[in-house]
Design brief:
Order of helices and strands: EEEHEHE
Helix content: 10-25%
Number of helices: 2
Shape: globular
Length: 119
């Protein structure tokens, strides 16, 4: 199950390896790590992230948060900023609604007929 990691000035860092997936498997250890803002990481903390072998950082913070506390990894190939919402006032996005599996099928359309011979 989740393993707490110690990265100086970065709180709530956890390896989510071992958690179940929706398809019956489990997350591989070291494949998914979550943390709070890493904008306050010390040099020692940055070294710990690198030593752990992190290959991709996906920053879900809002743009205003990224500007206020920039990531020390911003500008590197491993860093990607993908804000959940552009601004705090933006409405949350909703998934497209799907048709109910219990919706009756559409009635069959009659096929057009071709004349077989000229009169």
């Amino acid at each position: 199950m989740p393993t707490d990691l110690t990265w100086p000035n970065c709180l709530n860092v956890r390896d989510l390896g071992g958690l179940p997936t929706t398809h019956g498997g489990e997350i591989r250890s070291g494949a998914l790590i979550r943390s709070d803002s890493h904008g306050k990481l010390t040099d020692e903390g940055i070294a710990a992230v690198t030593a752990h072998g992190v290959s991709r950082i996906i920053d879900l913070r809002r743009e205003t948060e990224c500007v206020a506390e920039p990531s020390p990894f911003a500008g590197q190939l491993l860093y990607l900023s993908t804000p959940r919402r552009a601004t705090p006032s933006a409405p949350p996005t909703r998934p497209r609604s799907r048709p109910s599996p219990y919706t009756p099928p559409c009635p069959a359309r009659p096929r057009p007929t071709r004349p077989t011979a000229c009169p």
